[in-house]
Protein backbone atom coordinates (compact mmCIF):
# COMPACT_ATOMS: atom_id res chain seq x y z
CA UNK A 1 0.00 0.00 0.00
CA UNK A 2 1.44 3.35 -1.04
CA UNK A 3 1.79 5.97 1.70
CA UNK A 4 -0.33 9.02 0.99
CA UNK A 5 1.15 12.34 2.07
CA UNK A 6 -1.07 14.94 3.66
CA UNK A 7 -0.92 18.18 1.65
CA UNK A 8 1.57 20.56 3.27
CA UNK A 9 -0.84 23.51 3.39
CA UNK A 10 -3.37 21.37 5.27
CA UNK A 11 -0.76 20.08 7.74
CA UNK A 12 0.74 23.50 8.21
CA UNK A 13 -2.60 25.17 8.77
CA UNK A 14 -3.59 22.52 11.30
CA UNK A 15 -0.31 23.05 13.15
CA UNK A 16 -0.74 26.79 12.91
CA UNK A 17 -4.14 26.69 14.56
CA UNK A 18 -2.73 24.64 17.44
CA UNK A 19 0.18 27.08 17.80
CA UNK A 20 -2.10 30.08 17.77
CA UNK A 21 -4.52 28.43 20.18
CA UNK A 22 -1.62 28.23 22.62
CA UNK A 23 -0.56 31.78 21.87
CA UNK A 24 -4.09 33.10 22.30
CA UNK A 25 -3.86 32.19 25.98
CA UNK A 26 -2.05 35.51 26.36
CA UNK A 27 -5.39 37.14 25.49
CA UNK A 28 -7.49 35.03 27.84
CA UNK A 29 -7.80 37.60 30.59
CA UNK A 30 -7.65 40.73 28.50
CA UNK A 31 -10.54 43.02 27.65
CA UNK A 32 -10.62 44.36 24.08
CA UNK A 33 -9.03 47.72 24.96
CA UNK A 34 -6.91 48.82 21.96
CA UNK A 35 -3.75 49.52 23.98
CA UNK A 36 -4.05 46.26 25.92
CA UNK A 37 -4.78 44.32 22.74
CA UNK A 38 -1.69 45.70 20.99
CA UNK A 39 0.49 44.86 24.00
CA UNK A 40 -0.91 41.33 24.21
CA UNK A 41 -0.37 40.92 20.46
CA UNK A 42 3.22 42.10 20.77
CA UNK A 43 3.85 39.62 23.61
CA UNK A 44 2.26 36.80 21.64
CA UNK A 45 4.32 37.54 18.55
CA UNK A 46 7.47 37.68 20.67
CA UNK A 47 6.55 34.32 22.17
CA UNK A 48 6.04 32.76 18.74
CA UNK A 49 9.35 34.18 17.48
CA UNK A 50 11.50 33.36 20.53
CA UNK A 51 12.55 29.68 20.49
CA UNK A 52 13.45 29.43 24.19
CA UNK A 53 10.28 31.20 25.40
CA UNK A 54 8.19 29.16 22.97
CA UNK A 55 9.71 25.92 24.20
CA UNK A 56 9.14 26.84 27.85
CA UNK A 57 5.45 27.64 27.23
CA UNK A 58 4.95 24.81 24.74
CA UNK A 59 6.15 22.13 27.13
CA UNK A 60 3.49 23.07 29.68
CA UNK A 61 0.63 21.28 27.89
CA UNK A 62 0.21 18.24 25.68
CA UNK A 63 -1.27 20.52 22.98
CA UNK A 64 1.79 22.75 23.16
CA UNK A 65 4.15 19.78 22.88
CA UNK A 66 2.11 18.46 19.95
CA UNK A 67 2.24 21.84 18.21
CA UNK A 68 6.00 22.11 18.68
CA UNK A 69 6.55 18.59 17.40
CA UNK A 70 4.31 19.18 14.41
CA UNK A 71 6.01 22.48 13.54
CA UNK A 72 9.45 20.83 13.79
CA UNK A 73 8.30 17.91 11.67
CA UNK A 74 6.83 20.20 9.02
CA UNK A 75 9.84 22.52 9.10
CA UNK A 76 12.46 19.83 8.76
CA UNK A 77 15.20 22.29 9.74
CA UNK A 78 15.61 24.89 12.45
CA UNK A 79 15.56 27.69 9.88
CA UNK A 80 12.37 26.48 8.19
CA UNK A 81 10.68 25.83 11.54
CA UNK A 82 11.45 29.42 12.56
CA UNK A 83 9.82 30.56 9.31
CA UNK A 84 6.70 28.61 10.28
CA UNK A 85 6.54 30.36 13.65
CA UNK A 86 7.19 33.74 12.02
CA UNK A 87 4.31 33.14 9.62
CA UNK A 88 2.12 32.07 12.54
CA UNK A 89 2.92 35.35 14.30
CA UNK A 90 1.94 37.35 11.20
CA UNK A 91 -1.31 35.47 10.73
CA UNK A 92 -2.14 35.77 14.41
CA UNK A 93 -1.81 39.56 14.10
CA UNK A 94 -4.36 39.47 11.30
CA UNK A 95 -6.75 37.48 13.48
CA UNK A 96 -6.35 39.89 16.37
CA UNK A 97 -7.03 42.90 14.18
CA UNK A 98 -9.95 41.17 12.45
CA UNK A 99 -11.60 40.48 15.82
CA UNK A 100 -10.54 43.71 17.54
CA UNK A 101 -8.68 41.51 20.02
CA UNK A 102 -11.79 39.82 21.35
CA UNK A 103 -10.46 36.55 22.82
CA UNK A 104 -13.78 34.74 22.34
CA UNK A 105 -13.88 35.68 18.65
CA UNK A 106 -10.24 34.64 18.22
CA UNK A 107 -10.99 31.26 19.80
CA UNK A 108 -14.07 30.88 17.58
CA UNK A 109 -12.01 31.58 14.43
CA UNK A 110 -9.33 29.15 15.56
CA UNK A 111 -11.92 26.42 16.18
CA UNK A 112 -13.27 26.96 12.67
CA UNK A 113 -9.71 26.87 11.32
CA UNK A 114 -9.07 23.53 13.01
CA UNK A 115 -12.22 22.11 11.40
CA UNK A 116 -11.45 23.51 7.95
CA UNK A 117 -7.79 24.54 7.62
CA UNK A 118 -7.97 24.83 3.85
CA UNK A 119 -10.69 27.46 4.10
CA UNK A 120 -8.68 29.25 6.78
CA UNK A 121 -5.64 29.38 4.48
CA UNK A 122 -7.73 30.99 1.73
CA UNK A 123 -7.86 34.13 3.88
CA UNK A 124 -4.08 34.53 4.05
CA UNK A 125 -2.64 37.63 2.38
CA UNK A 126 -0.75 37.18 -0.87
CA UNK A 127 2.57 37.57 0.96
CA UNK A 128 1.52 34.99 3.56
CA UNK A 129 0.54 32.55 0.81
CA UNK A 130 3.90 33.16 -0.89
CA UNK A 131 5.72 32.57 2.40
CA UNK A 132 3.74 29.36 2.96
CA UNK A 133 4.68 28.20 -0.53
CA UNK A 134 8.35 28.96 0.13
CA UNK A 135 8.24 27.11 3.46
CA UNK A 136 6.64 24.12 1.74
CA UNK A 137 9.53 23.91 -0.75
CA UNK A 138 11.87 23.15 2.16
CA UNK A 139 9.55 20.87 4.10
CA UNK A 140 10.33 17.15 4.27
CA UNK A 141 6.59 16.46 4.04
CA UNK A 142 6.53 17.56 0.40
Q: How would you sum up this structure, described in words?
A:
The protein is 74% helix and 0% strand. With 142 residues, the protein is mainly alpha-helical. It has one domain. It is globular. The chain starts with 7 loop residues before the first helix and ends in a 5-residue tail after the last helix. The model is unreliable at 1-6 (pLDDT under 50).
**Count of domain modules:** 1
Q: Radius of gyration, rounded? A: 15 Å
Which class of secondary structure composition applies to the elements?
mainly alpha
Q: How many DSSP E strands?
A: 0
Distance between the termini: 19 Å
Unreliably modeled segments:
1-6
Helix content range: over 70%
Shape: globular
Average of per-residue pLDDT values: 80
H-E string: HHHHHHHH
Strand content: under 5%
Largest sheet: none
Total helix count? Answer: 8
Quick overview of this protein structure:
This protein is mainly α and 142 residues long.
Write the layout of secondary structure elements.
Blueprint: H1 8-23, H2 34-49, H3 51-58, H4 62-75, H5 78-98, H6 103-115, H7 117-121, H8 126-137
Which short descriptors sum up this protein?
single chain, 142 residues, mainly alpha, 74% helix, globular, disordered N terminus
